[in-house]
Amino acid sequence: MVYRIYVEKKKELAHEASSLRYEIRHLLQIRSLSEVRILNRYDVENIDAALFEDCKTKVFSEPQLDVVSDAFDATDAIVFAVEYLPGQFDQRADSAAQCIQILSQGERPTVRTAKVYLLYGALTDAELAQIKKYVINPVECREASLQKAETLAMESEIPTTVEVLEGFTKLDSEGLSAFLREKGLAMDADDIAFLQAYFRDEEKRDPTITEIRMIDTYWSDHCRHTTFLTTIDSVTFADPMLEETYKKYIEIRRELGRTKPVNLMDIATLATRYLKKIGKLQKLDESEEINACTVKMEIEVDGKKEPWLLLFKNETHNHPTEIEPFGGAATCIGGAIRDPLSGRSYVYAAMRVTGAADPTVPVKDTIPGKLPQRKIVTTAAAGYSSYGNQIGLATGQVDELYHPGYAAKRMEIGAVIAATPA
């Protein structure tokens, strides 16, 4: 049997709902909206009635903060629910399932969650569609049914056949552009043209959708760092000091015999290559297991000198945060933590540097196909702090840079410092 419960913050504490109301009225410019309510919906299976009743105040809610109900009054409200896509990690559901198992000391139940939105006011169909588009990020979630399911068991979605993209190798440039739009791919026109030529001339067949999706993932900015690896053909400077620095970089490239293309990745890593070549990095610790910059040092512990290792690591999650702000920013700091932690070090402190366009501009001015800047900025901040707080890592420096250029590409950097006895 599936049990269902709704949990809503008490009116004085409903900050999420009041923030969304503000954003809809001021960013979406939908003044006809008068009120917003948000409820967290829990569906639970493989649990008995007594345990479910006990969990209402011990797992699903905090009695001093929340209102718990088996149903809600939707009079005069427009109602819709949002749930994570199948396969997307639902932290709320996972945490609830773990807590129930701790209480029961038995098997872990199945838990599904959704957010239920109640909108009040004389909203038109177009305004409702606009609100749903703002609330629902199709990369991670979808609109959920308001009906209670008979079971939470997910039917297998493993396909028995794989689609072959018949006629792909014969598409003209307009056809390839339409294909990119239709499939929602991350690759650009040059990428898809290259793929077409490969399958036409080398494989001499049309590809499957699985092959295209796999390549699209591995060629995304997340995996391939397309922004950092973009070849810089020519560059001009307004600042003489920056121009002088760039000239120095070109000179060092010649000295090292570097023939790979000039790009941001090469600029960022060339100094280390040069310092290592001239013997200035003697304290750099190198081994097969090191995943973070590791420096040998000596410190004093209780009056005695000890060999220690100091570790630095930064992670950039520009593209992931742009398309999925919460998860992208959370795993940004998570990736930075992971690497020194894998070197058996203690991670002490973090720093976050981000770049965004103006988050106060109306949503209607958002670049087509992208999330609004305010949505990215606020949701990414929540994702970063969620991961950092759960790990227990203090972030002493947070700096967000605002510039129109970041409307085209988000910047999300998490960095940490760690140490361990050698």
Could you walk me through the main structural features you see in this protein, from its secondary elements to its overall organization?
This protein is an alpha+beta fold and 422 residues long. Strand 7 (293-301) and strand 8 (304-316) form a beta hairpin. It has helices spanning 15-26, 49-58, 91-104, 125-135, 173-183, 189-203, 209-218, 221-224, 240-256, 264-277, 318-323, 325-342, 373-391; strands at residues 3-9, 33-45, 66-69, 77-84, 110-121, 141-144, 293-301, 304-316, 346-356, 394-402, 411-421. The chain folds into four domains: 3-144, no CATH class; 168-219; 225-282, no CATH class; 283-421, PurM-like, N-terminal domain (60s Ribosomal Protein L30, Chain: A). The protein is globular. The longest helix is centred in the last third of the chain and has 19 residues, at 373-391. The protein has a six-stranded antiparallel β-sheet. Strands 7-8-11-9-10 form a five-stranded mixed β-sheet.
Radius of gyration: 26 Å
Strand line-up across the major sheet: 3-1-2-5-4-6
Helices and strands, in N-to-C order? Answer: EHEHEEHEHEHHHHHHEEHHEHEE
How many structural domains can be distinguished in the coordinates? 4
Beta-strand share of residues: 15-25%
Instruction: Please give the count of helices.
Output: 13
